[in-house]
Design brief:
alpha+beta
Length: 670
């Protein structure tokens, strides 16, 4: 037997062994060998295939498990939205979270609340879909509604079985985090060339999962830990029961999760995890606190993109001392001028930091900071570096940081609004930095979510005058021949960008409102406006009616003023007109829900006994009602609790139907 025959024989043996042990692990849930022994088989197979590429088998394990290279990632729509968590930074934030929950649920105290607490893994969110016990898809979080289909990329992750056994529901979305252990990250980086090395384990996990060459994903030791549930055909009463079921399915939850019964227990556990943090073999950036009862979670619901029933307590930020070498100024999309410190580079949590925000000039004066002073910096939420305090003054050489007299970009006049610390450029529609900021906001993940169109690409195409305003991105095809000749582009990159732009043209009404970049209109207010006005033309026609806007529950005076100002400008009207020609906006239909209050306008007054007023409003919204803040002819019902006050008199005068709490609950079918 010659050498080639020996190699082919061994490759066949390895193929059979790997196939057999994968079947034992993923399908039968009865592994016969350890993970380490299995990894050795895979490693030996990979080494032989690389050394003898002409001898690779037609049924190679790499081919069986998706060894082909994809052309691109397909989009995958989640059956239920994937939310993100609001952050807490100290003990008071946790106490406030519990206090809000108690108030919303109309409880006397938090004695009946239980919490599941677990480390917040710094990885990539994943949604697994099982139908009749079979894994049918895996998608990244994306914008919460639609992610990337990475089903083939995750087939080798050990904690993700291809089939569930024992008491599985007909349908379930299992949510969790994909990550790399710190030790595996170091081994991976050691094998890569300097230019290919990853900055941290999270980037390595994301880069490993999102490989068009699936064999690369399979060759890297990705891990998965579940932490949530989406749509499911079976009801669980508590998180702890759901986690116990996951263990039966061999989708093991975090072994560091803990049930807590009070805020004191939560804080104690938080401190314990913080102390253990450096010894845990994967990156964590906080502790997640979730209310244990799924029934209470359902009652609490969501506000914008965040659940009311969970919060992430961030660990205290890592800090370092360094010297401010100089200060320059950045201008954002709303004209806000932010002083940015250029620093003597310093290592902070494994990342080299050379820039940090100084927030505004009131903060600079308060901290008594000058150029060449030694300062402390930290990363808020382990992400955004900023200067926290003065450590030591350089009295001999320091230079006072002075606010600019004019916009540092376009030299226009600077404004400082009443009760605001921030300076703003007055040239809203002419300042190039504000234009760039609006385009970056427009193409960002929370807006149109255009893959491959980040800050770098926007700035380059703006500088070359291929885009000047948001709607210009839809005409980039006109500059194909010029752009493909640019460094770092080429035919494939440009075609991918055009495909991404075309794929982004279908957008929900609330996301469209958010994408416009109206000041004070974040995701929550955009959703409020979309639900209230349903259609774009209706919103535009109502945008100059102060009384109508003031009557929308949840919309504050600053947001109202900003809406009126935005829609009064001809340049914004022209932009919207142009965007309508390119986008397919999905508006909210006036559906006739099977509920007494669907499409009705409600006002609440007085104190309710069964529910808090906030929960009653939220419940009414889920049934299709619109909530107003004051009585008008538009009001259909006044829901009156105890000590209702003058609104009852006004409702009576206008002939508006008044319901007490008992009648409200009966009508809403609670």
């Amino acid at each position: 037997m010659d050498n080639n025959e020996k190699i082919v024989k061994r490759l066949r043996e390895l193929s059979e062994l790997i196939k057999k042990h994968n079947f034992n692990y993923h399908t039968l849930d009865k592994p016969k060998i350890s993970d380490r022994e299995f990894d050795k088989l895979v490693q030996e197979n990979d080494i032989l295939e690389k050394k003898y590429p002409n001898l690779v088998l037609r049924n190679s394990p790499n081919k069986m498990y998706g060894g082909k290279i994809k052309e691109n990632f397909q989009k995958i729509k989640h059956d239920s939205q994937m939310y993100s968590l609001a952050n807490a930074f100290n003990n008071n934030d946790i106490k406030e979270f519990i206090k809000r929950s108690v108030k919303f649920l109309n409880l006397d105290n938090d004695d009946d609340l239980q919490y599941i607490c677990e480390p917040k893994i710094d990885g990539l969110s994943l949604n697994l879909v099982y139908k009749n016990g079979n894994l049918v898809s895996a998608g990244t979080r994306g914008d919460g509604f639609t992610g990337e289909d990475v089903t083939e990329n995750i087939l080798n992750i050990k904690n993700i079985p291809s089939k569930l056994t024992k008491n599985f529901p007909d349908f379930i979305e299992i949510r969790g985090e994909v990550f790399l252990n710190k030790s595996d990250f170091e081994k991976l980086n050691a094998k890569l060339e300097n230019k290919s090395k990853f900055a941290n384990p999270r980037n390595a996990a994301a880069g490993s999962l999102r490989q068009l060459d699936i064999s690369i994903s399979h060759s890297r030791p990705l891990k998965f830990i579940p932490h949530g549930i989406g749509k499911c055909s079976k009801n669980f009463d508590k998180i702890e029961n759901y986690y116990n079921q996951l263990k039966i399915w061999n989708i093991t939850p975090n072994n560091l999760s803990k049930k807590c019964d009070s805020v004191d227990e939560i804080i104690k556990f938080y401190n314990q995890i913080d102390q253990k943090r450096s010894g845990i073999d994967y990156d964590i950036d906080g502790l997640v606190v979730k209310i244990n009862s799924f029934k209470l979670q359902e009652r609490l619901g969501y506000v914008g993109k965040n659940p009311r029933w969970a919060i992430a307590i961030k660990f205290s930020a890592e800090k370092a001392n360094t010297i401010i070498k100089s200060v320059d100024f950045q201008v954002g999309r709303t004209g806000a001028i932010t002083p940015v410190a250029r620093l003597q580079p310093v290592n902070l949590g494994g990342v080299i930091i050379s820039n940090a925000s100084l927030h505004n000039f009131d903060e600079i004066n308060k901290k008594n900071i000058n150029v060449l002073d030694l300062v402390e910096i930290e990363r808020a939420g382990d992400v955004i570096p900023y200067v926290t305090r003065l450590v030591k003054k350089n009295n001999k050489l320091n230079t006072k940081i002075k606010p600019p007299r004019n916009c540092p970009i376009c030299k226009s006049n600077i404004l400082k609004e009443k009760d605001e610390a921030i300076l703003r450029c007055s040239n809203t529609y002419g300042c190039s930095s504000q234009k760039i900021g609006r385009i970056i906001h427009f193409v960002s993940k929370k807006s149109l979510n255009i893959d491959g169109f980040g800050e770098k690409q926007v700035k380059e195409l703006f500088k070359l005058k291929y885009i000047n305003k948001v709607e210009d991105i839809f005409n980039l095809e006109n500059f194909r021949s010029e752009i493909i000749e640019l460094d770092g582009w080429g035919e494939l990159s440009f075609s991918n960008l055009i495909n991404s732009i075309n794929n982004s043209k279908k957008i929900s009404f609330d996301k469209f409102i958010y994408s416009l970049g109206i000041r004070f209109i974040g995701e929550v207010n955009a959703e409020i406006l979309a639900n209230e006005f349903k259609q774009l033309d209706v919103l535009i026609s109502a945008s100059n009616k102060v009384s109508m806007l003031e009557n929308i529950d949840g919309l504050g005076p600053k947001a109202i003023h900003s809406i009126i100002d935005f829609f009064s400008k001809d340049i914004n009207k022209e932009t919207i007109k142009n965007l309508k020609n390119h986008l397919s906006i999905s508006f909210i239909e006036n559906k006739s829900l099977d509920n007494f209050f669907s499409n009705k306008h409600l006002v609440f007054t007085g104190t309710l006994s069964e529910l808090s007023r906030d929960e009653a409003k939220y419940l009414a919204k889920t049934k299709g009602a619109k909530i107003l803040s004051s009585i008008s002819k538009k009001t259909d019902f006044l829901i009156a609790g105890e000590k209702a006050g003058s609104k009852i008199d006004k409702a009576s005068q206008l002939g508006i139907k008044i319901l007490n709490e008992k009648e409200f609950l009966k009508k809403i079918n609670l």
